Amino acid sequence: QIQLVESGGGSAQAGGSLRLSCAASDRSFSSRALGWFRQAPGKEREFVATINWSGGTTYYADSVKGRFIISRDNAKNTVYLQMNSLEPEDTAAYYCAARNSIGMATAKNEYPYWGQGTRVTVSS
User: Fold this and answer.
1) C-alpha dihedral over 62, 89, 72, 51, to 10 degrees?
2) pLDDT (tens digit, 9 = 90+) per residue, 16-54?
């Protein structure tokens, strides 16, 4: 088992930016693909972004493509989500997740390890 801890959530105005971080306690961090998911009130948890083991490839949900950037620093066992041009529809609890594979995935059932979440609120 591994531990994932998100931070960096908070409140922002529409058009603003936030950067989320997820720190992992994991000897095999650099051998895992990672993902970010979000869950708004009354909605199911949905895919946001994923990154492969090295950071060489990324993939985004259509709703955030061009606005959000996922990155990782394997030396620090940390994955980031840079959130730009925020919209009220981005309001949600954001979760980082890790899987037992080097390759990207979009389905939440592909990720056995999850953080506790960090809340993001975007006001208009």
Assistant:
1) -30
2) 999 999 999 999 999 999 999 999 999 999 999 999 999
